[in-house]
Amino acid sequence: MVRNVIWVNGPGSLLRSALRKFIRAGEPWVLRFTHAIERRFGRVPAPPTVTARAVCAVDIVTGAQMLAKNAWLTTSPASLTKLATAILFARASEGRWHEQVEVRAQDLCSGSTMGLAAGDVITRQDVLYGMILPSGNDAAMVAARLVGPHWLDGINALAAELGMARTRFLT
């Protein structure tokens, strides 16, 4: 029976070095989720067919690699930038979650959004949710602006802190 596994599609060069540290905070939730699936279905279902160019699945307790496809392929980080921004923003927002912020026209962008418009007033908590739940690029732009001019240095420092030696964020 497979336990304590998280399946992640994306750039393997980033995942191997970061998953153990990056996912630990969510480990109890992952375990509860895995146990709930086992209670309902009697086993953890097999992972879906991999259609991504690169994928890496790691046991979050032992760090053992369970599945790899092009795990060391250098690729664009896609939503990893958004996740790094979310962590940096969460650290900067600690104790200020109900502080209201105004969305600016410069924050609006294409792609996946949470549906913000210039002039909207939302809380810092809503900005974080907008980055994580609908994967909103507009919310990520608001967060990066609120983190300040050292946002790029901050996410690169976070990558280093997490042991992501082969990762460098650029604009």
Write up this protein:
The chain is an alpha+beta fold. 43% of the residues lie in helices and 12% in strands. The protein has helices at 12-23, 27-41, 79-93, 124-132, 137-147, 151-161; strands spanning 5-9, 55-59, 65-69, 100-102, 121-123. The chain has a 3-stranded antiparallel β-sheet, covered by helices on one side. A hairpin with a 5-residue loop joins β2 and β3. α3 (79-93) packs antiparallel against α4 (124-132), α3 packs across α5 (137-147) and α4 (124-132) crosses α5 (137-147). The longest helix is centred in the N-terminal third of the chain and has 15 residues, at 27-41. 29% of the residues are buried.
Low-confidence stretches: 1-26
The average pLDDT score comes to: 77
H/I helix tally: 6
According to DSSP, the number of beta strands is 5
Residues in helices, as a percent range: 40-55%
Biggest sheet architecture: 3 strands, antiparallel
Rg, Å, rounded: 17 Å
What spatial order of strands do you see in the largest sheet?
1-2-3
Helix/strand order: EHHEEHEEHHH
Estimated structural class: alpha+beta
Q: Approximately how much beta-strand content do the residues carry?
A: 5-15%
Shape: globular
| CA distance, first residue to last residue | 43 Å
